[in-house]
Amino acid sequence: MRTNYRGIPEIYDYIYMVENGGKNGLKKVCLWQKKLVKFVKKILNSEDLTINTEQLYDYMKLEKYFDFELYPWEKFVFTLHCCVYRKDGLPRFPDLLIFVGRGAGKNGYLAFEDFALISQYNGIPNYDIDICATAEEQAKTTFDDIYNVLEKNRKKLVKFFRWTKTEILCIKTRSKIKYRTNNAKSKDGLRSGKVDFDEVHAYESYDNIKVFTTALGKKPHPRMTYTTTNGDVCDGVLDDLIEKSKRILDFEIEDNGLLPFMCMLDDPKEVHKEENWHKANPSLQYMPNLLEETRKEYREWRENRSSASDFMTKRMNIRQGNSEVELTTWENILITRQEVEPPILRETAVIGLDYTKINDFAAAGVLTKRGAKFVFKQHTWICANSADLPRIRFPYMEAVAAGDAEIIDAPEIPPELIADWVAVQMSFYNITMLALDDYRYALMKAALVRVGFTYENKNIKLVRPSDKIKIEPIIDSGFRNHNIVYGDCPIMRWYTNNTKKVKSKKYGNYEYQKIEAKSRKTDGFFAFVAAMTQHELIPEQQGTGDVLPLFTF
């Protein structure tokens, strides 16, 4: 047993390579690798831990059966994940995220790790491992790698293992490896020692993951390993893991046993320098064939980004599919700060409303016109009990101080508060229509009826996805021609910058989506979109009258 990591090359060598680079180190490392090393050093230097070097040595003897040698980064994460223990004997890092560019060898690594953990060197009987993925072909990848190792070394390993096309068994420990698909049914009774989730980017929700993770804990030393490149599923499990990992490495939250190994470009613009590609793939400098293939894909992507869209998402680990387009430039968003003539008492306007979750954020706004310009003033309600508040980096309390938002110290945002705000606007404006998403109407119906917005009055519009898609070209033109005005409203600029456009599979045109689910809210922008679907009800020029203070409530 040893506790001094400096004498353990599997840990120390990689730390040295990240910190020093150059001839004896990695060619380029991303920001999150530097933060990971700082994070790991802090833990190893401050906590009462044991590094089981005898076990590590035994595990590494199994490397000779594989067609490859583990790279320094693989030895690093393997040692921390499988051989470092707390004072109470439990693994210090039972959960591991490997988020690397395509071709780094994550399935090969996973095959070695699983082979080691069912072996006699683990010492835990019946330490079953389930390899999970959303598709059977992907779930079988790591399993087949281990199967092929056994086949190739049959004479030596048949004394210790039994294997079929569906199950691998260690004779001495009775530990098994099986692969599982995305069908969460019929998984009751699992008694896994470890669960692998391969290509996590494909998981849209935690439904299937929960089935397997709730089975953990019945065996000693439960572990999980997540392996993945980036992908096109937004607001899914991977986005959650990445956000959580970043907060861990920034020392904002406790790690709770998660070791986040993340490799990606620090900025999309870095892609045009080949040396930066190593930031996304820590194995690239050891694989000349992969480097040449990456060069080829880069040239294809540079010539036609839509036909080679996977290059950025998969090779560079920066989500940038051909279906995703930025909403508008940051320069165009900044120009929404312009001033226009103040509102006129009783002028015609429409209201847009976004009310996604009653215990999160809600936003509403009044839309008017000044010639070709669309003028939108918003108000935000923030639930003090929102689970997402700790994630949010935007200074929302400044918006509260400016009067652009208010904190609701309650379990949820009462619909009546929003309806009261609407009623106040009705005293200043001639509100001809209120627009909100059709699937959110049930939350607001009773409160809106109280202030006079009903189907019978024909002054409520339930916005459908097709309505938003139709208005997108007009909004796009408004941004490009600087005809959208928010006034000096930072929270509205934040909402807008958190939104992207994605090619609709159903309609073919663009639709709006969040860039990230938890920490980057879009409520104010979606309230603006709802209002814009009714912009034709507002005349461009209105008569003179008493003016109202602009962007004041």
From TrEMBL:
Signal peptide (from-to): none
InterPro entries per the UniProt record, alphabetical: P-loop_NTPase, TerL_ATPase, TerL_nuclease, Terminase_largesu-like
Superkingdom, taxonomy of origin: Bacteria
GO molecular function: endonuclease activity
Pfam families the UniProt entry points to: TerL_ATPase, TerL_nuclease
Ranges that cross the membrane: none
Location of the Terminase large subunit-like ATPase domain: 72-246
Chain ranges of the Terminase large subunit-like endonuclease domain: 253-500
Name of this chain's protein: Terminase large subunit
Organism: Parablautia intestinalis
